[in-house]
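Feature request disguised as a bug: please show the residue count (930) next to Translation initiation factor IF-2 in the output. Example input:
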Amino acid sequence: MSKIRVYELAQKLGLENKDLLARLKDAGIEAKTHMSVLEADAVQKFEAGREQAEDKPAIIEERRISSGLIRRRRKAVPKPEPKPEPVAESESVEKAAAAAPVPEAPAADESSAAAAAAEKAVPVTPDSTPQIDVEPTVEEPAVEAAPEVSTEKEVKTGAKVKTEAKVGEKVEAEVEEKVEAESAAPAAAEKSPATETAPSKPSAPAVVEKASPNRAKILGRVELPQAAPPQRRQGRPAGGQPGRRPAGNAPGRPGAPARPGRPAPGPAPAPVGDIPGGKETRNKRKKKGKGGDGPAGADRHERRSKRARMEVFEPDRNDRYRRAKRSGKQQKKTEITVSKAIKRKIRISDVITVGELAKRMGVKANDLIRELMSQGNMVTINHPLDYETAAILAAEFNYEVENVGFNEETILNVDKAAVGEDKPEDLEPRPPVVTIMGHVDHGKTSLLDAIRATNVIAGEAGGITQHIGAYDVELDGRKIAFLDTPGHEAFTAMRARGTSVTDIVILVVAADDGVMPQTREAINHAKAAGVPIIVAVNKIDKPGANPEKVKQELTEFELVPEDWGGDTIFVEVSAKEKTNIDGLLEMILLQAEVLDLKANAKKHGCGAIVEARLDKGRGPVATLLVQEGTLRIGDPLVSGAHYGRVRTMTNDRGEQVQEAGPSTPVEVTGLSGVPDAGDTFNALDDEKAAKEVAQHRAQKQREAELAKTSKVSLDQLYARLQEGDVKELKVILKADVQGSVEAVRDALVKLSNDICRLVVIHTGVGGIIESDVTLATASDAIIIGFNVRPEPKAATLAEHEGVDIRLYSIIYDAVADVKSAMEGLLAPTLKEVALGRVEVRDTFHVSKVGTVAGCYVLDGKVSRNAQVRLVRDSVVIWEGKLNSLKRFKDDAREVQAGYECGIGLENYNDVKVGDIIEAFEIEETATKLD
Ligand SMILES: Nc1nc2c(ncn2[C@@H]2O[C@H](COP(=O)(O)OP(=O)(O)OP(=O)(O)O)[C@@H](O)[C@H]2O)c(=O)[nH]1
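Example output, currently without the count:
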């Protein structure tokens, strides 16, 4: 044979060029196009191979690609010859079927049968065994070989082998499908009648037809999850699907494959169409979807079936689908759902802007602006709304506004309502805190030193004492904290800031001097604070000491010694000689026991600033007295408008300490600024909160300075009486002489009535001093000066603190004013407006004119028409008008501060160097009671 072109050969064989090319390729003969030339050898080889191929069945090479996929390729195998003695074989099969766990022969049987019938049957090999590849050349049994493989597999794994056979269908070149079938039991497979089933060849389809109605349900129900996807993808024709059956089904039908002459019905030739998820089912659904239910129902149905399919085949995607669906639903829900009541409550801190309010309510800012405009407010989006406006506006939109403001107490954890009282089991006894008061030179400092020296020598030999403003002393293991701020001024200054630090007051009275004015003041200050007093009668070592006289004098102030039937402890001591210091300490501890002082050391430290200063090297340094809780290094701290962390802590002996419990004074660094003595301090959880509180306080301070209100003033007395704010009018009375004090006090006390009691908490002779003002501040008192003036510092402080100072020269005026105020009938107030103060530095006598004072204007100004008051040692000497005001030799209308001037007083010549001339004007204002 000579060479031949492909198309010629195709014509010769009656094939299409394309087909021939494919076959040539399969046969391993190279031919690219229909014009390619084929060698004679190649043609012969091809034709020979073709003849052979027509006679022998194709063998399928199967390769498992993945757990669910088997790739199957057709391979030419020699035609198997029918086995002899089919009957004997059948019997064996019958036996095997009974014995095997999976009694039915695999699809191989059917395949063989089909192969025989169609001469192109597929002897199905089980599972993924590549061994099949070597079989084609074996003459006898490709089919036998297959069961052998099955057997091997069964033995090795003991598992079911998945396989699939196609009955009556020409296998395509490459097929991918997932199948599941049971492997044949070894014996059954070996003796499978597959090879001898030629006679029953035609029965294979019949078996399929018969089996399908009965088994479809079972198959479908059980095998759906595994079998469905490939079916769907492949779209295998119904009836072409070889039997598949659940493994568990086999034992239920023993002997099924035993019938000779028929292919084992075991692996049920499932009617694929009946398997849920199969093509037919899908078609049905499609049909339904398209026609039956109408668009809505169809859609719903389609969605449901799609979802069902996804549940089976794509669980992950299904999750996504569900999630997407759910989130979609939620979004929709948000749109239509009305917010819960709690969400309709907007919490604001005093003020909120229009924009912020709109955002919180979820409405457009424009809507709010429109609403406000309709109410007559022209605002912008950044316009701040106060609580009331915000509340009214929000109500229009069905929202509530709650003013949460800034609650300092909550942040500081001192809000008893929120935190609750300390548990009794947490309360432990704490040392008493003591302050020493008394008249000048009666020995306060000496007594403190004596106490300290005794203590240092006793306990801390060699210790370097530090002045930190407060210190501990110890007696028999019991501690006492002393505040090293002798005098009632500091004591009251602290109290004025709302800090009650002192538990016990030691009143020092010199035995040789007795009760003096400041002794009285100290008593009044201590009593006003409600602090118990222990009297230390000092200087008993002095020859002229008369302790009994001191006791006698103090009875006037209701301080009666115990041995005289009273309840005041008197201790006779000598600070200089250090006599009976321990006796005094003992009495302090005794008094402390009576007071039953307790504190909870388990919480954050809090207390008061005893003193504070700015140290060049260390920054702000503050001496704190811890009153409750425990203060530790590193604790965030806030005091007044300052905050920080406790960087270092030092005790009064100069030792670094890590923590300080109740009634312990320590010197602390780490604050951002210098707090005021008497300020409280609080340790917190975090520094940010401390900063917030400090900033808030600073803000409040600024506001307070802007809107200063007096504590109690006569002008407002009646209104406040009506409101029930005031039940008691406290008065501090200062006068030029003791007689005036008594007279005015008696007159005032008589004004007490049912509505308001008038209490004179302190009286004194002399000008109004700072301590009077601090006492008035601390006690909400007014100050009445009779023929006296406030010292400049006191006046400034009074103005700063809003303390009402009333100055009178006639008792009747003082009494009438207070009475009118109490009755709400205060006459128009003649308000004195101070212009300035002038100091007399020299005096000249000018004939016919009188005495002219050479003066210096200290502050403000003095004007020619002003009224003046001559003050000597804070006592008013004269009041009247100016006769002359000169700058050098010229008359002046007014002279400002910092300049010298000559002043002549009208009809008054007794001017002395050092006198102060106060210039003022009288302004008449109507009394306001509201
Ligand atoms: N003999 C005697 N003198 C004492 C005693 N205590 C104090 N002194 C003296 O009294 C004077 C005043 O004592 P201070 O301790 O300065 O009195 P003070 O009350 O602190 O005085 P001020 O700080 O000015 O208020 C000093 O000279 C002390 O030496 C004492 O017990 N006996």
